[in-house]
Amino acid sequence: SRKKPDLPKAAYYERIGNSKVFVFKSSINSTVFSQIIGNDKNRKNDDSPFYTVNLGTLVSKFQEWQREMPRVKPFYSVKTNNEPVILSTLATLGSGFDCASKNEMNMILGNNKLTTPENIIFAHTIKPEKFISHADKMGINKMTFDNEEELYKVKKFHSNPRMVLRINVSDQTAAHKLGAKFGSNPITDAPKLLKKAAELGLEVIGISFHIGSGATKEETYGIGIKYARDLFDKGLELGHNMTLLDIGGGYPGNDTDEEISLQKIAKVVNTALDKYFPESGNYEIIAEPGRYFATAPVSVTANIVSSVEIKAERITKKPTDSNITAYSYYLNDGVYGTFACKVADFCPTISSFPLFPKNNQTQYISAVWGPTCSDSDLIEEQTNLPHMEVGEWLYYPYMGAYSIVLATDFNGFERAKGYYCIDEKSLQYIKSRKAAKSDLLSVLF
Ligand code: PLP
C-alpha cells in the first residue's frame, strides 16, 4: 500500500562553490525534496544517511527577519551551521557574520571573500592571542569582551580594536544559559570595564548581550536594551564613541513553537529600540542569530538498519504496558552524527516521520536509536510511528542548528551527506541582491 511518490523534477542545476544545487521551477517543499533524494538512493541501492538544505526556506527566513526587525542587521552566527552554501547565500542577501575563531573568520574572508571585514564581529569574549593578531591581519576590528584581562591582550595584539562590551542578560528559562560563562554584570562590573578601557586608550563602540540559546522569554531583550542604554550613557561620559548595539542570538529556529516567535520578540525589540535607541540617533543595531536561520532549511533522513518488535513496557517503563506491541528502530545516523544536537541539548523538538508514508497505518509506541554502541545514542526515547521495515527511511525536519557542525565519526559510522535545492524565484531574488551590492569582493553566486 506504499503511495507511489509523484515527485517533481529539478529544472536544472546551479554550481554554488563546490555544491551542486537542484533548481526547481516553483517553490519546493523540503519533505518533497528529501523524497526525491530518497527515491534516487533507493534506485541506486544506496542507504547512506543524508540531509537536505532548502535555500528557498533560508531566503524566506531572511525576508521575515527584515520585515519584522528592519532596524536590526543580522550577523549570522557561523558556529550554528557552516555549510558554505548557507554562508554564501546569507552573505549575498546582506547578512554580516559573528565569527568565534580563526577558522570561522577564514570561512568568511578567506579564499571566497564572502563579505568585507566591517560585516564581521569577532564575538567571543575570550580570545587566544593568535586569533586577535589574525583578526587584525584580516581587518576585523569589532570584538566583544567581558573582562579586564582581555583588554590588555587586545591592546597588545591588535592595532585598531573597536571593542564591544558584553553584558550578562539572561533568560533563566533558556536551554543554554550563557550567562554562567560569558558577560559582565551590567550594574557592578560593566561601568568599571568601560572606565578601564578608557584608561588604556581602547575605544569601546557599543554593548552586546545574548539572552541564551533556546530562550522563551522575549521580554529579556527589552531588559538588555535598557541596560545597554544606561551603559551607552556611561560610555559617552567617559569619551567612548558609543554607536553599536548588538542584541545577540536566541531567536527560535522552529516556527511551530508557540511559546516564543520572531514576531513576539520583534514587538519587544522594536518598542525598546524606539524608546532607547531612536532612529534619529544613527545607531548601528545588529544581532547574532544562529538557530533562527539554520534550523528550518535543513532536514535529515536516515535509513532503518534494524526494526525490532518489543513490548511497550521497555519504552514507557510502565509494567501495565507489558502486553502492548512496540518497536525499537536502529538508524544509520545518530547522536554522534547529525543528531549531535540532541546530546548538546540544542534540538529539543526532534521528531520523525516516515519519508514515504503509507495509508491508514496503525501507530505503535516506538524508540529510535542511532547506530553506535553507546547507550546514549538514542534519538527519540518515545514516539509514535507506523511499523517500519529495514531499508525504509525516517525523516526529521528542522534539523539545521548545532547538528552537522557537531557530527563525529565515532564508531566509524559514515557522516550524512548534503543535498541542496532552491526554487527559481528565490534564486532570482538572491541574484538581484547580488547585483545591488557592488561592495562585495566576490561571492559564490
Ligand atoms: N552569538 C554567540 C556569542 C553565541 O555564543 C551563540 C550561540 O551559542 C549565538 C550567537 C547564536 O545563538 P542562537 O543560535 O541561539 O541564535
Automatic annotation (TrEMBL):
GO CC terms of this entry: cytoplasm
InterPro entries, per the entry: Ala_racemase/Decarboxylase_C, De-COase2_C, De-COase2_N, Orn/DAP/Arg_de-COase, Orn_de-COase, PLP-binding_barrel
Cofactor(s) required for function per UniProt: pyridoxal 5'-phosphate
Biological-process GO terms, alphabetical: putrescine biosynthetic process from arginine, via ornithine
Entry's Gene Ontology molecular function annotations: ornithine decarboxylase activity
Limits of the Orn/DAP/Arg decarboxylase 2 C-terminal domain: 318-400
Xref: SUPFAM superfamilies: Alanine racemase C-terminal domain-like, PLP-binding barrel
Active-site residues from the entry: C373
Reported function: Catalyzes the first and rate-limiting step of polyamine biosynthesis that converts ornithine into putrescine, which is the precursor for the polyamines, spermidine and spermine. Polyamines are essential for cell proliferation and are implicated in cellular processes, ranging from DNA replication to apoptosis.
Entry's family note: Belongs to the Orn/Lys/Arg decarboxylase class-II family.
PANTHER family: ARGININE/DIAMINOPIMELATE/ORNITHINE DECARBOXYLASE, ORNITHINE DECARBOXYLASE 1-RELATED
Protein name as it appears in the record: Ornithine decarboxylase
Organism of provenance: Panagrolaimus davidi
